[in-house]
Amino acid sequence: MTQPSIKAVIPAAGLGTRFLPATKAMPKEMLPVVDKPAIQYVVEEAVAAGIDDVLVIIGRNKNALANHFDRVTELEHTLEQKGDHGKLARVMEASSLADVHFVRQGDPKGLGHAVLRARKHVGHETFAVMLGDDLIDARDPLLSRMIEVSLAQSATVVALMEVDPSQIHLYGCADVDTTADSDVVRIKALVEKPKAEDAPSNLAIIGRYVLKPEIFDVLEHTEPGKGGEIQLTDALEELAEDESIAGPVLGVIFSGRRYDTGDRLEYLKSSLLLALDRDDLGPALTSWLKELTPTLD
Length: 297
Hints:
alpha/beta, Spore Coat Polysaccharide Biosynthesis Protein SpsA, Chain A, 9-stranded mixed beta sheet, about 35% helix
């Protein structure tokens, strides 16, 4: 079981420029994946791991995020009057998932800066950071395993996933040693978006972290890196190089289903794959795809 003190932090202050013009007035985290906004999947994942306190780091024009997790009594009343209890339950689900809080990032100084903005809310406890671009299939738990490893070994834990070596330049990459657990590695170093020939492994960092509170002190003195931003990877690199700061930095290797919603093509694939797995949509969608496929040749 997860300790009640663990909270989740979801950075959601990005501009979503890859999805313009859709994200001109709508946060990218509110783009629908089938029929739920992407951020709701992330909050549901946190809840499934035993977390009931979620802090969302937002930027300007992100009020839609707060509205989504709030009650809409007029809509609820209308659906109740119509007797549409199925839709009513789905509408109310978001507002009852967890205690969801919001804080503004202010200056957009990168992921490390966004995490640092969570310091007052998190306090002196271990906490999870969950990036909204990565959706983890509910059937393949990852965060609960990361929390288990972190608490058992008093460690910082980073989620890793094997990728094709030709794609490693798109990710942060981990240099690792094996441990007694087949799905856990000790991280010696982290390299941000290396060339394939320079990469120490094909283990890519994906958007889940379980961090100890010592990360905040490290982030306070982390100099801006790539793009002039404070990089979380740079702070994790410092922790990995000096275990006296906060203990070891470990990686949990994830081999389950992950959906990347930060890229337009991958976002479309993610929506399609998740819809195919649903009882209410999958059969009809499968039939349509079979009809469509010959026309694509």
